[in-house]
Write a structure and sequence with these properties.
The chain is an alpha+beta fold. About 30% of the residues lie in helices and about 30% in strands. The protein has a 6-stranded mixed β-sheet. Strands 5, 6, 7, 8, 9 and 12 form a 6-stranded antiparallel β-sheet that branches. Strands 2-13 form a two-stranded antiparallel ribbon. The relative contact order is 0.18.
């Protein structure tokens, strides 16, 4: 009987410890292998533009989860799980904005991928600056609760704002403690689901009392946002990309290559299952993304034989890649296309290359971060 009582007491204590550990939130996120999805299943082209595909181009992601103490302890022993500090994902902003920031990054990623693919095919895709996008809002700060990730500031006190630096200069020129009136819309009101620019976005007026900060020994106005310049594009035709709840910028290169594969004849992969990850910029540059170890696991599970990754993360991918997965490091769209050609892919019209000047890479937009405004 005594051993039953003792066993019951131990079980009760362990249960209480597990419950307590599940209630303690840790300042960490876990990264685990996510999906490896064919880009062709996500992309919709106008009638007559798509080609029958020989092979597949995969995009991949990671599952990101905030962990409690119990999850932290369990994840420490998971071979394909990475634990990263919350600040590495959220930066100086609050964790509550992480989802909004990821959504903004995905919108920009899809927009830029469409533009890069079309330009690589030789289409003219002129661009213009449309305002300063809010990517992050500090808490506490004057803008907190009044602006959110994805808002686009197009004017300050009635004066037009076309870029993030213009917004920063107007806010800095205002006196700390003064109230400014911002004309605001959203990315969703500027860009349609197929990437086309909307002609009649909705606007609202937002009044904000500025704080102050010291720059070069002088007190200047402070709003408390991290903005970047929003570029909009006159595309020859719209391209739909349906990603559901997936966020972040890391599928930019995969989207670009997947769109090119369909537009250029359908043999860009040379009949192989090829995966890609990396951000894409409007000048064709490919940037690092994070979580590449976990993505490498995901694409192998998805049947890929080739994985194109940002050069800066080549070693990370190779650290977990099997001998059957060929990992290709690149720093640009041009390098990715060249690698595919060497592996047996046929570029077709994708070898045309972007034109220079208007409609080309003369004024790359996207995530051009300005100092905090």
């Amino acid at each position: 009987m005594h051993w039953l009582v003792a066993s019951g007491a131990v079980i009760l204590v362990l249960s209480l410890v597990v419950i307590a550990a599940s209630l303690v939130e840790m300042p960490y996120y876990s990264l685990t292998p996510g999906q490896a999805l064919p880009v062709s299943k996500l992309v919709t082209l106008p009638h007559g533009k798509a080609s029958r595909l020989d092979g597949e181009m995969l995009m991949t992601d990671v599952d990101v989860t905030r962990v409690n103490l119990l999850g932290y302890i369990i994840d420490m022993f998971e071979p394909h799980t990475a634990l990263i500090q919350a600040g590495e994902l959220t930066g100086p902003g609050p964790s509550s904005e992480l989802g909004g920031e990821a959504e903004v990054e995905m919108i920009e990623s899809k927009l830029t991928a469409r533009v890069e693919a079309l330009r690589q095919m030789g289409y003219s895709v002129p661009e213009h600056n449309a305002g300063a996008v809010v990517w992050m809002v500090l808490k506490p700060a004057p803008a907190w609760g009044k602006l959110a990730p994805g808002d686009v500031v197009t004017a300050v006190n009635g004066e037009t704002v076309t870029t993030a630096p213009v917004l920063a200069s107007k806010i800095a020129a205002a006196s700390p403690g003064s109230t400014v009136e911002l004309t605001v819309t959203t990315i969703g009101d500027l860009v349609a689901g197929n990437g086309s620019e909307l002609s009649h976005p909705a606007y609202r007026q937002v009044k904000v009392k500025l704080a102050g900060r010291t720059v070069g020994g002088k007190k200047v106005g402070f709003l408390g946002i991290a903005p970047y310049t929003q570029g909009l594009y006159a595309m020859p035709f719209g391209i739909g990309i349906s990603t559901g709840s997936i966020g972040g910028p890391s599928a930019g290169l995969a989207f670009t290559l997947g769109i090119l594969d369909e537009l250029a004849g359908g043999d860009l992969t040379g009949g192989k299952v090829v995966a890609a990850t990396g951000t894409i910029r409007p000048n064709g540059a490919v940037g690092p993304v994070g979580g590449v170890r976990e993505k490498t696991i995901a694409v192998e599970r998805g049947g890929a034989s080739v994985f194109i990754v940002p050069k800066a993360e080549y070693r990370s991918a190779m650290s977990v890649a099997s001998k059957t997965l060929r990992v290709v490091p690149v720093t640009s769209l041009a390098q990715a296309l060249s690698a595919l050609a060497k592996l047996g892919g046929k570029l077709g019209k994708a070898s045309t290359g972007a034109v220079s000047g208007p409609g080309g890479h003369s004024a790359p937009q996207g995530f051009q971060y300005a100092p905090w405004s």
